Amino acid sequence: MLVLGIETSCDETSAAIVDNQFDVKSNIVLSQQDHAIYGGVVPELASRAHMRSLVPVVEQALFAANTSWNELDGIAVTRGPGLVGSLIVGVSAAKGMSLACGKPLIGVHHLEGHIFSTLLENKIETPFLTLLVSGGHTELIRVEKLGQYKLVGRTRDDAAGEAFDKVAKLLGLLPKAGSIMGGRIISELADQGNPQAIAFPRALVGDSDFSFSGLKTAVLNYVRKLSRDQREVQLADIAASFQAAVVDSLIAKTLAALEQVETDVKAVCIAGGVAANRSLREGLRAEVERRDVPFYSPSPIYCTDNAAMIGAVGAYRLSLGDCDSYDLDAVPRLSLY
After folding, report:
1. Which of 126, 130, 52 is nearest to 86 (CA)?
2. Same domain, yes or no, for 6 and 130?
3. Displacement of CA 240 from its chain's centroid (Å)
4. Order of strands, sheet of 268-271, starting from the edge strand that comes earlier in the sequence
């Protein structure tokens, strides 16, 4: 069984071919470059770029997988959450392709795609615990079984990725660096700094919930007291200390959740764009494995938005005989629970 996956929830235009064993035959990701000068994704520009790029990206995915339209068994597409204009482009295109080639249509929840991203390279028994960290989401999710999810904890304000982006902009790293990926820029800068140089706070609210707005404010207040020269000298230390505070909070909450959830949890996983952060991956792996629990993380290419994870969900649902009608619509605030 082969499924074409389509992902256009934000500013990556992606298409992939995946089979029902979650084997990725191709995964093409086109990242938009037009947003850097604005310091963030501009929704209208993103949707127009998807309109220009989606068909060529799909054709490239089919070619790379040596697959024809006739060999496909279904077409899966992200229906939400995300930017409404971007989602509409993907959903509309998927409907047209489905109708034209007579293949079933499967609408996929973007966060479920991230959960499945770990399964692209690993066989994982359920139930397992997933820390999903991205620009828009920071959540701890218990995967009872594929398709059945329980929210364990979530951020009460900023997502972890959002905090990285805002602090990168605060430090003058965006858009001057020619990118809107604040997390990657701070991570690279942090490698040159001392993570213990500045004692930024670790917010530990509630049992398994996160909070990053206070940390962001602490960085702002610290930077405001510095002269321009002082800030330049301390830039790497600020980045390293901020990153350490975020990573410490994410690890502490995940471990707390692991102790609170039922003892039958078979593994801990991490997914989402921030999962590509080396400090977080290595730190969480060490702590989880110290507790004799298996730990899994996707390769960096599958951490950020991609169509392979969408195709995997689509292939799984299609194997159960589940598909959608042409009434399928984009839902920018679609709930997983």
Report:
1. 52
2. no
3. 22
4. 148-154, 138-145, 128-133, 268-271, 295-296
State whether 235 and 131 are in the same domain.
yes
- Give me the CATH number covering residue 197: 3.30.420.40
User: What b-and-e string marks burial along 183-206, b requiring 16 or more CB atoms within 10 Å of the CB?
Assistant: bbbbbebbeebebeebebebbeee
In a domain, 332, yes or no: no
Strand partners, 74: 3
pTM of the model as a whole: 0.94
Residue 19 maps to a domain: yes
Nearest in space to 211 (alpha carbons), one of 261, 160, 161, 273: 160
- Average model confidence (pLDDT) for the chain? 93
> Which residue matches tokens 């499945």?
116
CA distance 43 to 115: 25
Query: What is the secondary structure of 110-125 as a DSSP string?
Result: HHHHHHHHGGGT---P
Q: 128 and 223 share a domain?
A: yes
170-229: pLDDT as tens digits: 998 876 555 567 888 999 999 999 999 999 998 776 678 999 999 999 999 999 999 999
Q: For residue 159, what are the domain limits?
A: 124-297
Residues 10, 32: Cα–Cα separation, whole Å: 10
